[in-house]
Protein: N-acetylglucosamine transport system substrate-binding protein
Amino acid sequence: MTYGISRRGLLHGAAGVAAVSALGGCAMGGDDGNDTGGGSKGEVSAANPLGVKEDAPLEVVIFNGGFGEEYAKAHEAMYRERYPKAEIKHSATQQIAETLQPRFVAGDPPDVVDNSGGSQIDFNGLVSQGALTDLGELLDAPSLDDPSKKVRDTLLPGIVDVGSYDGKFLTLNYAYSAYGIWYSQKLFEAKGWAYPKTWAEMIALCKKIKAAGIAPWAYTGVHARYMSWPILTAAGKLGGLDVLKAIDNLEPNAWRNDSVKAAAEAYYQLAVDGFLQPGAEGMDHIQAQTEWARGHAAFVSCGSWLENEMKAVTPPDFRMAVAPTPSLTTGDKMPYGAFRGTGSEPFIVPAKGKNVRGGMEYLRVMLSKKAAADFTGKVSSLTAVTGAAQGLTLGPGLTSVTKLIEDSQGSAFTWLYSTYYRKLERERVNAATLELLTKRINAAQWCDKVQKAADEFAADPAVKKYKRA
Structure:
C-alpha cells in the first residue's frame, strides 16, 4: 500500500483526476522545515503580529459540503476589512483532492484549504511530505478579541491535540462536532418514549418502535463508518480511554479488545433483530438522514452538522435532538453523559502557498468571536472558539448539542486513528461495518477484519506512524 501524496499517490488517493498524466512533479512540493518566513511578508507590528503583506493576494478554497460556502465569504470580507488592498480569490468544491492534489504536486497550492469531505486529501501524505505549514506561530499570536490572550488560549480543549502531528500543530479543525444518537423530540413525546440510557433500554425501546410501524434505526450503507462511531464510543465508555488509545497507536489486538467486541456485538444485535431500516445498505448519508427526518426511522448516528445539512427537508416542528450513546452496562468506566466531541472541518495552510502569512492571518480572523458567531449563526454548528455562541439564538438541534456538552461535565473524548490513518476508517472500517450491519459477518469477525487492516497499516513502511500519549 502506498499512501504518500506523490505522483504515484495521486493514482491511489484521487482516481479520475485527468491531470495526473500531465504532472511532471514527483512529490508534494513540501518543506520539511515548514518555514513560514517564505512567500509574501510584511512588517511585523502590534496590529500585524504575523507580518502579513497588506497587498498580497490570498486564495481560499472551501469544501462545499454540509456547511456550504457562505460563511467563508463572510470571513473573507472580515479579512478584507483588515487588508483592503489584498485581492481575495474564493472557490468552493466538493472534490478537494481531485481539484487540488495536482496543484500540490506542482508546488502551486492555494493559501488556505478547507480539506474536508469524502474527497479530502489524505493528511498522512500531506504531513509525511512536509506539505503543511506549522501553525505554532498562529497559536502564539495575540487573539483579535483580546491581545493579552494568545490564540491558543481561546480554543476549546482538544482542538490543538486533534490538529497536531509529531508535536506540530498543522491543522485547525474549526468546527466543534459533537457525535451522538439523534432523534425527534416531537415523535418521542407523541409516543411517550424516553431516550434509553443503557443498551438494555435501547433494545426494549426498539421493540416498541418497530411495533409502531417505524424502523428503529436509519443508517447509511454507503458511509457505514457512521455506525462505527457509536460502536467505538460505546467501547470507550465501557473500557476507558486506553481502549481507544490502543486503536490510535495501531497496537496488536486493539480491535479485539473485549470492550470493542462487546460494543460490536451490541450493534450487530440491531441487524439480527431487524431494527435497521430495510434498504439502508444502499443509501448514502443524505438519503438515510432524509428517511429519518421524514419520520420513517427513530434514530440516526451523526455529528452536530446534521441540523444544517438536513434543514431543507426537516419539518419545522421536528425538534431534532442529540443524546449520548447508551452505556453498554451499568458498570461502564465512563459516565452515561460522556460523548465523542472533537474538532472537525480541518483548515490547512499549505507550506508552498504564495501567501503563507496571509493564510495564518485568515485563520486568526476565523478564530475571532465575531467570525465564530457568524459561522454558528449561518450553519448551526459550534466552533473551536470558547464562548463564541453565547447570546446567539440557536436551533433545536444545536441547543441540544450545547446541553449535551454542559451535561457531560467535561467528560467528552475522542479517538485519532481516523485522522492519522484516514483510509483505515474511510475504506477498511467502512467496508467491514457494512458487512456487520448486513449480517455478512458477525461481531468477532468484524473485530478480526478491522484488526487485520490495522496490522497492515502498522506494517507498511510507506505509512507514517503517529503516537498518541
In short: The first strand starts at residue 58 and ends at 63.
